[in-house]
Design brief:
single chain, 118 residues, alpha/beta, Transcription Regulator spoIIAA, six-stranded mixed beta sheet, two-stranded parallel ribbon
Length: 118
């Protein structure tokens, strides 16, 4: 496992998946998302991977992030949160994402799900 700290969050990089945690009160714009995906591309190269957003903090995301900040080998997106508002927001975000998408209340469930792709 490799851990990276970015100005807006942190990423744990594993063999086939990454766990992303955005810092409290951040606003994820397209530039920040592209910075994150640059790091993901550098680590995974052309290998398929699943991204897990572990939403422990309150933050916002531009909708264009889901449409424009992506990689061909980004095959699944899992959201982990036990906050009811996060589930509502995830349902809205799913409409902007055309790959495998799932919502979980526990991080281990999302990790187990990510492993089903490999």
């Amino acid at each position: 496992m490799k851990k990276l700290v970015l100005p807006h969050g942190e990423i744990e990089l594993h063999q086939n998946y990454a766990i992303l945690r955005i810092f409290k009160n951040e606003h994820v714009c397209l530039k920040k998302a592209k910075d994150t995906f640059k790091e993901l591309k550098s680590f995974f190269n052309s290998e398929n991977f699943v991204l897990i957003a572990h939403r422990t903090q309150n933050y916002t995301i531009d909708k264009e992030v889901f449409e424009k900040a992506t990689l061909k080998n980004f095959i699944g997106f899992g959201i982990v949160s036990n906050h009811p508002k996060a589930r509502e927001r995830a349902m809205e975000e799913q409409n902007h994402f055309n790959r495998n998408f799932a919502f979980f209340e526990e991080l281990q469930e999302a990790v187990d799900w990510s492993r089903t792709f490999f």
